[in-house]
Design a protein that fits this description.
Oligomer: single chain
Shape: globular
Largest sheet: 22 strands, antiparallel, barrel
Number of strands: 36
Distance between the termini: 43 Å
Strand content: over 45%
Helix content: under 10%
Amino acid sequence: MQNLPFKLSAIALTVFVSQGLGAQERLEKIEVVHKRSSILSEITESSEKLVAMPGALGDPLQAVFALPGVVAAGGSMSSPAVRGSSPSDNSFEVDFMPAGYIFHDFGNSIFNKYLLQDFQLYSAAYGTSYANVTGAVFDVALRNPKYQAVKTTLDFSLFNAGVFVEGAITDNLAFYLSARKSMLPFFFSEGEEIEDEDGEKTGVIINDAPDDNDYQGKLVWEPNGNNQFSLSFTGANDSAAANFSQLAEFSLKNPEYQGDAKFKRGFNSQSLIWDHFAQIYQFKLGIGSLAGDERLEYGKQATGTDGFFQDKENKQLSLKGRLNYRLNAKHHLLFDAGYFDHQVVFDYDMFLYNCTELDPDCDLKKGERITDKHKVDYTSQMLAASHIWQINDALQSELGVQWHRNDLTDENFINPRLALRYQLNDSNRINFKAGRYNRLQDIEYLVEDIGNPELDSQTAMHTSIGYEQDLADEWSWSVETYYKTMDKLPLGLSGYGDADKLYSNEVDGRAYGVDLMVNKNRTDRWYGWFSVSYGKSERTDLRADVTRDYYADTPLVVNAVFNYQINERWNGGFNFTARSGQAYTPIVGVRENPDFDGRFLPIYGEPFSERFDTYSRLDVRFERKTDFFGLDAKLVLEVMNILGTENISHIDLDYRKINSTSDLILKEDEDDFGMRPSIGFSVTF
């Protein structure tokens, strides 16, 4: 929801892959699928590395933060910002269809580690198959079920527990089912008051402990070698509830929100996909339904005062098709089409907060209290075509164009895309990619009364050029530079003469940088990678003619991952991350809260002009295969932030200690939980 007075993390915490296969590689993969469909039942090598990465707790999508160009925007449990774009600019697809969300609010993704077949992160300048996106694309492929006797795997760890069932029903019909539940409720008791790192009471009392759960299932029918039908369903839920007493920092800053607060969100999706394989083409057709709800209640008093709420319900029906056609050995054609029907319902009783990512503190942009309900219905469509041409033995091109339209803002876009790949020799190649992209503004910015329905869509231009080299003994390295421009981003108009419009399209942005990666595939019992990313991300307020660092700007990021097969049973490794501190806005003074006597608010300096100290974290993981009463089992020992590094991610006034405008007393909050050990156990029968 737009401009929430607080995020769920506030309740909870106080309670190589490459960037995608080249065009030719994608086509080669498609050509072999129909010859051996079982390949889609096995995880790819690059994705398997992510599953085993220390610090990710077996979660391959959490491991993306160890890839070049990816940072957690605002803290380790935040959404990924990729190559200077906003987390809101990202798009998520699961098995060819749009996803609700793929990350729980408490850090892990919604997918069981046993389900992943492949994962691709397209960080910039990708092809025509993806629409309504200006940032990165997270493309998740869940594997097909295996044709085997039905097996069940039970997983237990300090953070979640799950069950996974898989097997064949007939010779050409197989399935799997997965369900997981968070263990966080076992760490909190109802009525417990949270303590800070110094052991002091915080005034935050647990009503319902932070919790999440998810499920997935897939049924695959292969009537013959040329056709496959997949029925999939996925869902996830997150929730937490707490009471903020008059002594809680949150209540001292926002007295009207003192009382009970409750957050919950979830979604359910179903899809049916038909894959048809022939000698010279592959055709895919999918239809999917997605329904989600997100509700926040806060400021509810024990006296019976209802308080405030924000509720957002959304439904989406998707129809997609893709045809990959090989004309001959040198020419391939790729066609994509999609139709999407959207319905969003907003219901709220809240204060209007007129702010965007450019504002350092949304709480200071509070407007009048508003109550209303809005329903938004709109459709969007896309058509795309690409021609992949093997010009000669060394040079390949992919030239495409995409048409995208939505009837909410009545806009049409023609987006050209280009990719060139030059093979210098068997081991060296150069890649160049460029394209134009667009996406609808976050729907909250377009809703009448809380947004501006006249806002145009955001647009972006991506350009990248890279060099790759394969070395002996499974070593390789690559370097890629990128440049992005972002146009028509939203600007909050609070304080301007036309503030009644709430928002305008008067923010531009740019991001540029270089990613270096050295990779070692598994040989001699070990593998690993090392990456260094340098980048810059800025936003320009065109009305004020001021350019500032973006809040997620992280100039330097270093990652090192190592995994070693100690013996037949033991495997171990580490993951080290170091990065520049993200930009923040310094607090330079204290002022009285104009709405509440005896309460105080911060005075901010130049937005995003200072940086937190360097962030660093070392995670280790050991895994042992074992037997459990004759059954295959696995024991996992993992320690996150084993050095106990204190990484500061937020600075605010220490509201409990401030009694006058002369009391400039600051409080720092850490990014992580400190050192976190975990033990996990799984057994298959």
